[in-house]
């Protein structure tokens, strides 16, 4: 069964590219364009991994990571953080809040796919 | 209703009220919540200056000499104007040396001399006892008057009553009891009596109210106004002379003498020293007293002339003593309540004076007269007694009773011999003796103990000879020849024309001679030898009192002393418990270990000043010397120390100045740093925003490019779509870079501006045409209100189009899909043409209406929809509009009911 990946980003073009990329890699892809939608979809669809933009409308990406941990059914969900700011503090804040890894925009698509595979256990 | 029981009851109620206030004040002081820590109460307590001599006597004096009563107030007013120097210095000296009386002050200044303290005490007691007698006389006189009501009968001139049935005797005893309870409740190292001060302040209010009440009654009740009274006076042959400035028989010399005397009295009367210096809580209170106390005296003098004239007119030829007008006028008019109020006012004037004066005198008698004698009598073994506090209190209480009985005695013997006002002046002249030693001591380092002793003794003798003995003679105790012929017929020695000095009134005569011999002897004897070490060190403490930040007293001591000895010594006079807590506190403060056996100079000085507060500085010196092995300092050593300490002082002033400068510099640096940090933060934020704005399109571009690269067999449709997205993202990047550069250019003032005539209507229509595609896509409507015939403006056409496009595209962005409406209107406003672009979108919250003009600040950043765009459109628009300030005005936001008017730009038309 293919793994489910949730893309949470508010930039439509980035979503389009990521969606295409991951579909091509054989993942089932879900899309959310703001924090609230991301959390709702995560709970409803229980994705295996979420690609999370840290700067999103309606609940900052960083904030939507936090509720994942205390929700038991989401405990196994991996979070890969995407950041366009690339600041040390943003990254460590995200990791501290429960993200499993991060990528700085713009990223290499190869690296991204590799990172997703690592997080999903090969 | 004015009968004996009513008067007695009222008096006792009043005294009970005073007692309650005093008790409350003491209780609050014990709790550390002082009620007298107020400049107003301080100023009111100084009004203890006005005694019955004023309350009843001013009117008497005015009835004889018109405005001749005024110098008694002019003097103090002038002195208060100088209080910032003299009084402030006295307070500072007294506080830093724990000085508790004027005798202690003088004794301490001239090397802590017992002899000098004793002499001052004797002068004060001899000078003041008649004054106390005067208060007793006034109170008993007023009671006797009231008892005859409704008749007005002048008290008989001879005192024939036996002591035990004489009311004055009991008044003296009651006052003594009252003073003992007020003033010697416990022994205090600072000799302060908060409760008493509170009561005295209340008394000042009472006597003022009473006097004003009579004044108003006479001026507006008996007569119509001030003018009315003076008209009556002008009609009267005999009274008219009183309204001239200097009534015949007087001259300016008399005025001058009285002014000087009264001015010195306000400083050196023991009761004034007590309330103004010893009881001062905070020297800043002096500021309000400087004007409030003179104001008080002005008020209490306002009605003196009207009452005097009213009385003279009313009792014309009835033989009523003018000193009683304050009381007899209300009585004659059957104003019982007012008469009783006046009696209480007089009572308050008397009790206030007697209480404070006897407390001050008893402290002096105990510390400067009796204790030194007791300490010398080895037979009493005083040094071995464990706790002497009871003895000290006993001595003071005894002194209070003795002083009041002396006052009574004087009243019995001489009370009827002299008019009230003369007794007051005799007392003033006595305490004026202190002036040379006091003022000289505070400003002249050369004054010595010998000089002060000589000056005081000589002045005192002259005072006795020229004023006191003549008053005895006038009372009939000496042969009248003594006055007219001189003793044994030596006419040069006639007491009131001494050495042939004639033409002066008795007070001016006495003042001249007593100051002549006092100052002469003080200066001459002081010059005979240089000050000793003890005198020189005390002189420095006094003369430089306003310069020292901390006393140098401790530097003047060298020797060895055991802490336990010192503590035991202090304990004997202050009580073991208080000594223990004071020593614990001091050792804590100085960082001295409690088990250390040797006391350092600081602690010895501390112990001595504690003792000085309780028993006077001279006795304290003797006692401390008795338990310590002291090495006397020579004069040259003292001078070295003083020199050193003055050097230290200038070093420390220099240091203070430097550290103030450093503090200033630090503060400036801190502020600059805060500004820098703020700038840094702003720069950081902008960098981070720019980075973010650049990275986002780059992310898409890179992702699509890699996808295209990695998958050559991709569907053509996908391929074209992705390439289209890459192109639009590149355009976005270009726009961002252009706008960033544009803004930077505008901000740095390097942008090119091309001002031409612009038809705004045309410009708006063109902008709308350019954005019509956007509106169509959103399904939005446009409502236009663009009137014809508006004037052209001078502006940069392209820039204005840039602004309009920005505003229009912003408006479109937030329109609800399908039902959007944008209203564009143009009108002539107050400052020019107004363009408004309103939409029916969600609007901008009031708190965000400024933020949206900041770079990269897009409202609704995280909590609502993320807006598209660079975040630079509005900042640029604002800059453009601001560039035309004067020609254009600025963007402003107006909130109306939805739809919001989003932007409004105003241009001044070209006419």
From TrEMBL, chain A:
InterPro entries: Bact_response_regulator, CheY-like_superfamily, Sig_transdc_resp-reg_receiver. Keywords: Phosphoprotein. The keyword Phosphoprotein applies. Residues 4-120 form the Response regulatory domain. SMART domains: REC. Transmembrane segments: none annotated. The modification 4-aspartylphosphate is found at residue 53. Gene3D superfamilies: 3.40.50.2300. PROSITE patterns: RESPONSE_REGULATORY (PS50110). GO terms for biological process: phosphorelay signal transduction system. Pfam families: Response_reg. This is Response regulator. It comes from Candidatus Propionivibrio dominans.
């Amino acid at each position: 069964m293919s793994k489910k990946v949730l893309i949470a980003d508010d930039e439509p073009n980035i979503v389009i590219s990521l969606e295409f990329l991951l579909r091509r890699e054989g993942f089932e892809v879900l899309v959310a364009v703001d924090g609230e939608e991301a959390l709702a979809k995560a709970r409803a669809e229980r994705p295996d991994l979420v690609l999370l933009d840290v700067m999103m409308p309606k609940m900052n990406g960083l904030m939507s990571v936090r509720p994942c941990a205390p929700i038991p059914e989401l405990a196994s969900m991996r979070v890969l953080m995407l950041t366009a700011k690339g600041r040390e503090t943003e990254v460590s804040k995200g990791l501290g809040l429960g993200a499993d890894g991060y990528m700085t925009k713009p990223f290499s698509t190869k690296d991204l796919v590799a990172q997703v595979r690592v997080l999903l256990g090969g | 209703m004015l009968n004996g029981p009513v008067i007695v009851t009222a008096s006792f109620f009043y005294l009970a009220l005073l007692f309650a206030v005093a008790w409350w004040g003491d209780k609050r002081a014990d709790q550390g919540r002082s009620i007298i820590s107020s400049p107003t109460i301080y100023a009111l307590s100084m009004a203890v200056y006005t005694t019955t001599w004023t309350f009843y006597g001013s009117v008497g004096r005015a009835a004889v000499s018109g405005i001749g009563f005024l110098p008694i107030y002019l003097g103090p007013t002038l002195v208060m104007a100088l209080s910032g120097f003299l009084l402030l210095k006295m307070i500072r000296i007294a506080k830093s040396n724990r000085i508790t009386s004027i005798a202690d002050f003088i004794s301490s200044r001239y090397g802590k001399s017992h002899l000098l303290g004793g002499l001052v005490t004797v002068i004060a007691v001899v000078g003041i006892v008649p004054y106390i007698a005067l208060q007793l006389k006034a109170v008993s006189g007023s009671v006797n008057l009231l008892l005859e009501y409704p008749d007005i009968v002048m008290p008989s001139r001879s005192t024939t009553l036996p002591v035990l049935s004489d009311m004055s005797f009991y008044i003296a005893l009651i006052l003594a009891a009252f003073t003992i309870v007020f003033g010697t409740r416990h022994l205090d190292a600072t000799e302060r009596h908060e409760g008493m001060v509170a009561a005295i302040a209340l008394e000042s209010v009472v006597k003022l109210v009473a006097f004003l009440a009579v004044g108003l009654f006479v001026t507006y009740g008996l007569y119509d106004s001030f003018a009315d009274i003076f008209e009556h006076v002008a009609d009267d042959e005999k009274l008219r002379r009183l309204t001239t400035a200097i009534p015949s028989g007087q001259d300016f010399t008399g005025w001058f003498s009285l002014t000087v005397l009264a001015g010195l009295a306000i400083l050196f009367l023991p009761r004034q020293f007590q309330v103004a210096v010893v009881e001062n809580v905070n020297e800043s209170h002096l500021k309000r007293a400087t004007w409030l106390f003179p104001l008080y005296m002005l008020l209490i003098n306002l009605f003196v002339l009207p009452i005097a004239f009213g009385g003279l007119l009313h009792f014309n030829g009835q033989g009523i003593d003018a000193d009683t007008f304050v009381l007899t006028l209300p009585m004659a008019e059957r104003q019982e309540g007012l008469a009783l109020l006046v009696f209480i006012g007089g009572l308050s004037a008397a009790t206030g004076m007697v209480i404070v004066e006897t407390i001050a005198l008893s402290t002096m008698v105990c510390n400067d007269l009796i204790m030194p004698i007791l300490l010398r009598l080895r037979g009493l073994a005083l040094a071995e007694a464990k706790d002497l506090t009871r003895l000290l209190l006993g001595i003071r209480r005894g002194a209070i009773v003795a002083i009041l009985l002396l006052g009574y005695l004087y009243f019995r013997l001489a009370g009827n011999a002299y008019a009230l006002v003369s007794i007051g002046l005799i007392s003033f002249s006595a305490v004026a003796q202190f002036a040379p030693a006091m003022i000289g001591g505070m400003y002249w380092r050369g004054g010595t103990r010998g000089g002060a002793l000589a000056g005081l003794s000589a002045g005192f003798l002259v005072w006795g000879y020229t004023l006191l003995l003549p008053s005895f003679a006038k009372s009939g105790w000496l042969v009248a020849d003594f006055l007219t012929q001189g003793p044994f017929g030596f006419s040069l020695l006639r007491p009131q024309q001494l050495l042939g000095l004639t033409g002066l009134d008795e007070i001016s005569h006495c003042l001249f001679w007593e100051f002549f011999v006092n100052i002469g002897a003080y200066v001459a004897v002081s010059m005979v030898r240089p000050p000793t070490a003890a005198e020189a060190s005390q002189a420095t403490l006094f003369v430089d009192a306003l310069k020292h930040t901390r006393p140098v007293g401790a530097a003047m001591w060298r020797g060895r002393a055991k802490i336990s000895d010192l503590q035991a010594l202090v304990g004997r006079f202050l009580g073991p418990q208080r000594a223990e807590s004071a020593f614990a506190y001091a050792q804590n403060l100085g960082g001295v270990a409690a088990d250390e056996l040797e006391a350092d100079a600081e602690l010895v000085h501390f112990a001595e000043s504690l003792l000085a507060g309780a028993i006077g500085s001279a006795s304290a010196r003797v006692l401390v010397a008795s338990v310590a092995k002291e090495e006397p300092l020579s004069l040259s050593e003292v001078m070295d120390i003083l020199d050193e300490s003055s050097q230290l002082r200038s070093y420390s002033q220099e240091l203070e100045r430097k550290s103030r400068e450093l503090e200033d510099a630090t503060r400036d640096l801190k502020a600059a740093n805060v500004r820098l940090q703020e700038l840094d933060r702003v720069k950081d934020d902008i960098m981070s925003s720019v980075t973010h704005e650049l990275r986002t399109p780059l992310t898409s571009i890179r992702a699509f490019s890699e996808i295209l690269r990695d998958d050559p067999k991709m569907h053509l449709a996908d391929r074209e779509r992705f390439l289209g997205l890459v192109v639009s993202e590149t355009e976005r990047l270009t726009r961002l870079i252009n706008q960033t550069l544009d803004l930077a250019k505008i901000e740095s003032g390097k942008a090119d501006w091309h001002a031409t005539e612009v038809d705004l209507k045309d410009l708006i229509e063109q902008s709308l045409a350019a954005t019509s595609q956007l509106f169509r896509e959103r399904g939005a409507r446009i409502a236009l209100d663009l009137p014809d015939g508006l004037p052209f403006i001078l502006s940069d056409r392209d820039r204005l189009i840039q602004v309009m496009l920005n505003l229009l595209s912003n408006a479109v962005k937030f329109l609800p899909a399908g039902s959007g409406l944008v209203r564009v209107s143009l009108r002539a406003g107050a400052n020019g043409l107004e363009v408004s672009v309103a939409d029916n979108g969600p609007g901008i919250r009031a708190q965000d209406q400024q933020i949206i003009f900041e770079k990269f600040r897009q409202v609704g950043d995280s909590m609502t929809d993320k807006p598209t765009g660079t975040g630079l459109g509005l900042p640029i628009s604002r800059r453009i509009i601001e560039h035309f300030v004067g020609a254009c005005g600025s963007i402003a936001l107006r909130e109306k009911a939805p739809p919001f008017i989003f932007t409004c730009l105003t241009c001044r038309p070209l006419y």
